Amino acid sequence: MRLAGSVRSFRPGGNPGGAVAARVTQETADVDPTMTPPTPSPASRPDDHDRARPPRRVGVIGHGAVGSVVAEALDRGVPGLVLAGVHARSPVPDRYRAGSFDELLSGADLVVEAASQEAVASYGPAVVAAGADLLVVSVGALRDDGLLATLGRGAGRLLVTTGAIGGVDQLRAAALLGSLDEVSLTTTKPPRALVRPWMSAAEAAAVEEATAPVAVYDGPAREAVERFPTSVNVAATLSLVTIGFDRVHVRLVADPATDHVEHHIVARGAAGDYEFRFRNVPSPANVRTSAVTPFAVLRGLADLDAHTVIGF
User: Which of 31, 6, 7 is nearest to 292 (CA)?
Assistant: First the structure.
């Protein structure tokens, strides 16, 4: 499996912190979600080495806050990449809508899942079995150990975006030096982003009408990504690269005073103490999603075939 944001690849089993190999970099800032990807720097521009390769054909599953931005960027043009099509339940422009999942897969070298945890389980095994790479955005689906093992055994690679956080490369390096003893994540979002269908009317009202920060969850990452599947995919990413779903501690806070998506990560271990804080602008299409997430996907895709990669 690989983690992509840049992109990473890891195989199940062994030390979770040392099981991943490749490159991850991630930046967060107040991002204009309508912006187009920046012009490649000289270090990342295609040269004769890159032009010798045929463009990588990228299919996309999902056309929401992440999938639509990725698809539109690829449709406009990204060096070395070409949009193979989009398969989604939501409306998709005719010019790149795939008639079916099978049609999408037949024309893709890599498929970006940007739909849901259910989509990872439904389509992922077929993607990697066909020899195409699978880039997962709904990382919480990988809490299912059986699904993770199946995807890790495919002919195609399993790629995992870093999404809305950074520091993953440092935590992986720290885990190689020695065990991490503690990893925690506190995620703070506007209240409406953390209301879930399973909540009672009273519980939902307590969150939506909060006048001060309210903790809506406090416990292991495995349960967090199951109960809040669209809100804490970063918890799954941290779990995969550090100490696992049952040991990473997650706290979710609904704060009526915030208009950002905030992730505060603390880790301690033999290599030292680490603390990362990210304060992202939410996507205008979905308050649960950071606007930077699709750009992490696009940067990861670009890194796959780049001749020069900074932050490897």
Answer: 31
Cα(70)–Cα(25) distance, integer angstroms = 18
pLDDT recorded at residue 159 = 98
Q: In whole angstroms, give the CA distance from residue 119 to residue 234.
A: 18
The answer to whether 293 touches 300, Cβ cutoff 8 Å, is no
- pLDDT tens figures, 123-152: 999 999 999 999 999 999 999 999 999 999
Residue 111 has pLDDT above 70, yes or no: yes
Taking the whole predicted model, whether its pTM rises above 0.70 is answered as yes
Q: What is the DSSP letter of 142?
A: G
Interval 253-287: pLDDT, tens: 999 999 999 999 999 999 999 999 999 999 999 99
Supply 256's token pair. Answer: 């009526």
Torsion of the alpha carbons at 83, 87, 90 and 94, rounded to the nearest 10:
60
Task: Tell me what the mean pLDDT of segment 153-168 comes to.
Answer: 96
Q: How far apart are CA 82 and CA 302, in angstroms?
A: 11
Q: Which two tokens stand for residue 188?
A: 């703070």
∠ CA 283-289-291, nearest 5°, is 40
Exposed / middle / buried, residue 204 (Cβ in 10 Å: 0-12, 13-18, 19+)? middle
118/205 Cα distance (integer angstroms): 27
- Listed in order, strand segments (DSSP E) in the chain are 2-4, 7-10, 20-22, 56-61, 81-87, 110-113, 133-136, 158-161, 180-189, 214-220, 249-254, 261-269, 272-280, 282-283, 286-290
Rounded Cα–Cα distance for residues 130 and 106 (Å): 9
Q: Which residues are part of the catalytic machinery? A: 263
- Over the stretch 41-86, which tens digit does the pLDDT of each residue have? 554 455 555 556 799 999 999 999 999 999 999 999 999 999 999 9
Residues contacting residue 233 through CB under 8 Å, at least 6 positions apart = 137, 138, 139, 140, 163, 164, 225
